[in-house]
Specification:
heterodimer, A: 91 residues, mainly alpha, 4 helices, B: alpha/beta, 2 domains, 13 helices
Chain lengths: 91, 408
Amino acid sequence: MKDKTINLDEVKGQVTKSLKNVLGKKATNFSLEQRLIEDLGVDSFASLELIFELEDTLDVKIPDSEVKKMITVGDVVAYIHNNHGTEQNVH
Amino acid sequence: MKKRRVVVTGLGVLAANGIGKTAFWEANINGKSAIGSIEKFDTSQFRTKIAAEIRDFDPLGYMEEMIANKVDRFTQFAIACTKMALEDSCLQLTQVDPYRAGVALGSGLGGMFFYEKQILTMQQYGHSKTHPASIPRVMPNAPSANVSIEFQCKGPNLTISTACSSSNHALGQALEIIRQDKADIMLAGGTEAPLVFYNFAGFDALRVMSTEACRPFDRDRDGLVMGEGAAVLVLEELEHAVQRKAKIYAELAGYGLTSSAGHMVMPDPEGEDAAQTMALALKDACLQPSDLDYINAHGTATQANDKAETKAIKKLFGKNAYNIPISSTKSMIGHTLGATGAIEAVVCCLSIVNNLIPPTINYHVPDPECDLDYVPNQAKRHRVDAALSNAFAFGGNNAAITFKRYEG
């Protein structure tokens, strides 16, 4: 699915914003290396909210099978950018 | 064993005619109506085009943006009222055992804003656009759950959903919980944000809503007016409140509950069950009918309710029924459904504190079948040592609660 393109900064910006929305008080600054579960406390419910918001705002599709493989913030950014991005791939 | 007594030590209220106990009380004693044309949605298809909307509520005044964005309007109301009630009570929840503090809230309908939005989104875009938090946002216990989380109350956590008596039952159940020593503090009340197209269409189809104004007990009354609102009361075990030198508004002293076991939406025309509900609430408070100084009526302004409620009052109080001031808060703020008992409980407490009874407004033409003292149009100075508040719901779930002056 590559029906639209999004640049890397846009992906990073939206992932950061969505993480903040989902995590609320716990949110600080996010690095690509941070692990979603262990470092940020993204539990299974927060993960659903995060993916829903990213799909909704960026108009992309992230299959559940791919979500399971995402360990870090960078993984989320990379998947979206690799499948919908314009510039050089990350990772 | 000595019966544990329960007192009210904090009030938080949101109504269309006033936010916070001071503004709300001023509006009530001055007979300020907040009923007007609906702005939230198009009413051109409906018979009724009026409601009591809360227009100046900013959730960010009471909670963080992240919380406000994640909950439905009825939960925002509950969090806001709880914050107001706790501030009013000067109670520091961090200084009490969290397992001795609980929540009991009523809501008749649940998170209807988000519910309706999700149905429309699904219809337009398909099920993939269904928000994963749809269920926790719309479920009727979302307010009590969020209040428990936000204020870290780890004791009992209940939601009562019995339509228009939801919050009278929530207050009554909270009373029982403290009496039974299962908690020392209960944040109790109710919340409703019913002004969405679906609800309005349903009530309009039922033909129970007025097209002009809410006129309880008036001969020309033509139905209820839907309203938004919420209230939370800090209920506290008496000794707990006394020890911390809390300001005590009143004692929540009695709770009566029955079922009409008759009809889904019509009251018993003879008011038999309503009379029994009030009798139980008085008995539970160790009050005689002659002790009562004020009735905050259910007073919906439907022909059927007001007639049946009047009959019930006469049945229970006999000739003395004519000496008891009765008023309907709904004449000013509409019928807030699952929140109505909680808001009217605030009125009862403040009536006891101030010895002043808010009026039933829009009362102009006496009805021979409703011939009691409804405190028409002007507040009444009257000593109130004992007050009773009625709630009679669709489904026949009746609940009345009684408040007494606390003398210390």
